[in-house]
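Objective 1.3, modelling of assemblies. Example input:
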Amino acid sequence: MCHITIKGLNVSYGNQHVLKNVSLEIPHNKITVIIGPSGCGKTTLLKSLNRLLELQDGVKISGSVYMDGESVYDPKVDVTELRKKMGLLSQRPYPLPMSVYDNVAYGPRIHGQRKKQILNEIVEKNLKAAGLWEEVKDRLKTPAASLSIGQQQRLCLARCLAVSPEVILCDEPTSALDPFSAQKIEETLSQLKTEYSIVVVTHNLRRARRLADYVGFIFLGELIEHGEKKDIFENPKDERTRRYISGESYL
Amino acid sequence: MTLRHVEEQCFKVLMVCATFLILGSLFAVIGVILVKGAGALSLSMITQTSKGGYYLGKEGGVLNAIVGSLYLALGATAASLLLSLPIAFCLQREYMKKRTANMVRLLLDVLWGVPSIIYGVFGFTVMLFLGLRASLLGGIAALTLLELPIMIRAIDEVLQMVPRELKETSYTLGATRYETMFKVVTRQILPGIVSAVILAFGRGIGDAASILFTAGYTDHIPYSLLDPVASLPLAVFFQMGTPFPEVQERAYASALILLIIVLLLTVSSRLFSRRFSKFVIR
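Predicted structure (C-alpha cells):
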C-alpha cells in the first residue's frame, strides 16, 4: 500500500483554479520528485498534504488525501498530530527566533518531552542526521540566525526530523543555497529515504534526476504523468513531458 | 549642475534643518530644566516627603511624588501589557477576520487620540458611582485606559510584520496556534514589545490630567491601593502655580527628576531588548 494517496484533489484561490483533479500515489521509503515549471501548483500540492494550505484566506479545497488509508481532511483528524507526521522543509530556511539547541528541541518540547537528558540526545542525534553536528556542537547556545544560510537549512532539516515524522515534504529545499550546501542537503535526503518517505518539489531537472525514485510532472495545475524515474525521463508518454524534460519550450 | 542635483541638494538641506530644529528644541527643554532646576535639586529632594502641605512648602522633598509616579506608571504599564498582548494577538488573521480587525484598529486609533483629561473625568465618574475616593487604584485604572490603545496598536503593528513562513514553520512541527503565538511569535517581536512598553510608560508617567481626579494628591507615600497618591507631573503643576520663586524652582527640580526616571528606564529597556534582538529572524 502507498504511504500517501491523493485522489481527485482540486484547489482554488478565489476564482483561480490552481490544482485540477490531481491524483497521485506516494510510495513508502522512496523519494518522489514533483517537477514542473514555476507557478504550476507544486508548492500548493505539498501544502495541501499537511493541511497548511487551509490557513490561507480564500482557499477552496476538494477531493481527498489519504495517509496510511486514513483521510487527512476528515474533520475528526487532529491537525497538530497530522502535521507532526509530515515534516516540511521550505525553500528559504526559517529558523525559529531562538538558539540552535532550542530550535531542534522546540518540537519535542511542545509534544511533551521535558527530560533534559532525552532532549540532549534528540538534539545531538538529529543534528548529526542533518550533517550539522560537527559545525555547531560548540555553539548550541548561539542564536540560530547567526548561522550561514546553508547551515540554517540543515538546522531546519534537523528540527523537522526531531519530531520523528513519517514523511518529509521538501519545497525547493536547495534553490536558495550555495552548491556545496545544496549537495550536502541532497546527500542527506538520499540517506534518509531508508527511514522516511520523501516528497521533493523542484524545477531543477538535474536535481530531480539525481534524487528521484519516482517522478511526477505537473503542468498548469494538472498532473500530466507520473511513474518510475526511468520511464519519465527516458520514455515520456506525453508530448508536454517530453518537451519539458528535453528543455524545449513547453508552450 | 543639473536640476536633479539641485533638487538633491535642496532636499538634503531641508532634512538636516528639520533634524537640527527638533534636536535643538529638545536640548532647549532639557537645558532650561537643568539650569533652573539644578539649584533646587538636593539629596533631601529625593529622600524626604514634602513638608508644608500640597507641595507648597519650601522644605522637604518630593519622595512621595517620585514613589507615587513610579507606582502609578509601573502599575498601569504592567496592567496594560497583560491586557494588550492577548488583545493584539486576537487582532491577527489567525483569530479574527480582517474586516473586523481593521474596525477594531480604527476604534483603538480614535482612543489613542482621546485627550487624557477625558479618561480622568470618565474614571472619576465611575469612581463616584462605586463610592471610591481618589486612590492609587483609581489612578492606575485611568492610566491603564490611557496606555492600552497605545500599547495594543504598537504591538499589533510589529505582529503584522512577522513573516507568515515563521508561523507556518511552527505549525508544521505540530504546534497549536497558542504555542506558536507565545513561544515563537512573542520571541520574534520581543524588541517591538519593549518599544511598545517604553512608549506607553512614557505617556503614562508624564500624564497629569488623567490622574488629577482619580489619584488625587497627598504628602504621604501610599500604603495601600486605596490611599490617595502623589505624582511628579502634578507636583510640577502645583509647585509652578505658587507665587514663591523658591517653590517654582523646586518645580523644575521635580521635572528634572521625572526626566531622569524616563531616561533611565528607556536606556535600561533598550539594553534588555538588545540582548534578545540577536535571536530575531530577519
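The first helix of chain B runs from residue 3 to 37.
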